[in-house]
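Chapter summary example: a protein plus adenosine-5'-diphosphate.
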Amino acid sequence: MLELSTPVQYVKGVGPRIADVLTAKGVRTVGDLLHYLPFRYEDRLNPRGISELRAGEMASVIGEVRNSGLFRTRSMPIFQLTVGQGRARLRCLWFNATYLQDKFKPGQMIALYGKVEADQRSRELQIIQPQFEILGDSADSGSNGTEKKTAESLEVGRIVPIYEATGKVTTKWLRRIIRTALENLTPDLPDSIPASVRSHMGLISPRAAFWNVHWPEPGESFNDLQSSRTPAHIRMIFDELFFVELGLELKRRQLKAETGIAFQLDDRVRSAIKKILPFHPTAAQKRVLKEIAEDMQKPYPMRRLLQGDVGSGKTIVSFEAAIIAIENGYQVALMAPTEILAQQHYFSARRILENAGYRIVLLTGSLEVDRKREIRRHIAQGNAQLVIGTHALLEEKVEFANPGLVIVDEQHRFGVMQRLRLMKKSGEGRESDAGTAAPGRPAEPDVLVMTATPIPRTLALTLYGDLDLSVLDELPPGRTPIITKQVTDDQSPKVWDFMRKQVAAGHQAYIVYPVIAENEERELKAAIKMYRDLSSQVFGDLKVGLLHGRLDTETKDQVMRMFQKGDLHILVATTVIEVGVDVPNATVMVIEHAERFGLAQLHQLRGRIGRGAAKSYCVLMTGGKVTEEGQRRLQAMVDTNDGFKIAELDLELRGPGEFFGTRQAGMPDFRVANIIRDAQLLEAAKREAAGVLAGPNAEISSEEISRALVEMRSRWQHTYGLVEVG
Ligand code: ADP
Ligand code: MG
């Protein structure tokens, strides 16, 4: 009998070669194999009659091969296949498909799936490049008569699962292997989800779920199958989400049990905050500060995510929080993803906070060794009150005398695990992650992470499931919407003219390139070369600066400072300026090869302008071919300034995994769940997980809870490779 943990090569029919292919796909065990779900199903119980097909529909057809052949046109060879049912006929075409030449024999039964179209001239129906499967042909498994029969019964006369083929392993192979695995699966599969949760959710057993998700009963709703909403799908999806949420919920609880710092927020602190404010905060800023301040006053550590679109004014909120900590006698660390941003924060912190007498230091990786050592000593002795830096703060094990608050800017650039590794207090070597409160243990600092990635609330709560959430949903007053235009780069003279006028009116401009030097990607314009051309020719009379990641810190620093002060009119740059850079006088953002950038990146880049009262303009210049998806991205940028809408489209175009960079954010790639499609199940899983941890009680026994926790830990470790929880 097979267990879920049995290696996949013990499934009959899986040789070492296939096992290798499967392993490469992440399918190592029987359990993995059973989680390899069909991406769609075909109704071969009631296949469509050819005569009832309509142009424009997706259809699955079973018919007999009548004839086939390759014919050559001027541009390419085309393979044509005619399939018949009685007198009805359907033509199928494949372009450039010489490999199909000897594939079909007249009389074979074949299943087809694809979009039905009417031929432009003859109006006859046809399917272009359908997916196909030759039925009952088990030649590729070297089979005898009985196996041939089984093969046939797996392929016709029922709803058939269609798997994504992987390497040499076809959908047909997968169907047989998975079927064999199911037939030999041990009858007692443990169910670690507590009975009360199962009954709230109406979950079927794991065994029934495995069977039905691969081999649906004849009566199953076809719609539910295609949309992953059958009881079998729901069981598997919920199962996956539940154990992830259980881990997150446990972390949340452990955190609340830890000793934190209960900061005091009295009139003295309040007036210290008031004193530094350079402008009236928006209502959203006030509300968010209140949420943060209340959290900071609590006796357990704060873990809060501050989400706000580019330009919504997160920095000043974080400075206010910093003052609360500093006025209570603690140190604050502010981390930024790039040196440029760290430097900029350093300058504005000095501008805004130094008058109040706060001691601020900057610590970045590229400082000289001696200088770093000196700064570290300041930090360890408690002299530095606000420490601003890059990853260097994490990586170089900086020791704080008295850390009270950690602020992480542009959190989407940092991994969650890095975030947790942050902060070490001098003289100890403890892990900052999970653990229970122990008397006498020093207090954990509060953590505030900030991001401009607008994620729908429920998703944010799951992705950053151990964090509380504050949202800045209002821009500071006086902003006019940015005007965005898309042009091809042969219109650059006009664009340069326009920039010149803006500069003449006293404004500044950015020009962004996808690469630094020309040899990186041949056909792309590069920042260094374009800087040379533009500064010597087109803008010979203006002051032009160059900024990219490979300059040394001092140069970067100098260029940025000159641009900030208005000593440079135009800044030619790479995406180093993508996040955070704040020069309100800049009103033009030209992005060359805009088709090469992702949506989130374009939105971030555009966020560098429109920060002051003057009207701002973003020019998306394309050079070369723009794909259909690329065009959708550019159009979205032209159509809206709303970061939330842009994020939704981005999510749609890229899919959740890539959008969130889930791996780097420390979240698992789900095997069967899709956090967008399954948002409701996700919320249910979160609620049920919280309920379980609130036990034991009349509904749930302590044995059930510990069984669920054991399962959760093993999944977090084995399936997701995440650090241990509790
Ligand atoms: P982000 O949320 O993108 O980090 P910043 O904190 O850089 O945004 O703020 C964007 C710009 O808006 C900055 O120039 C900042 O000084 C300004 N700003 C922030 N809050 C206000 C406010 N309440 N009134 C006017 N200007 C503000
Ligand atoms: Mg910012």
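Key point: The CA atoms of residues 215 and 619 lie 53 Å apart.
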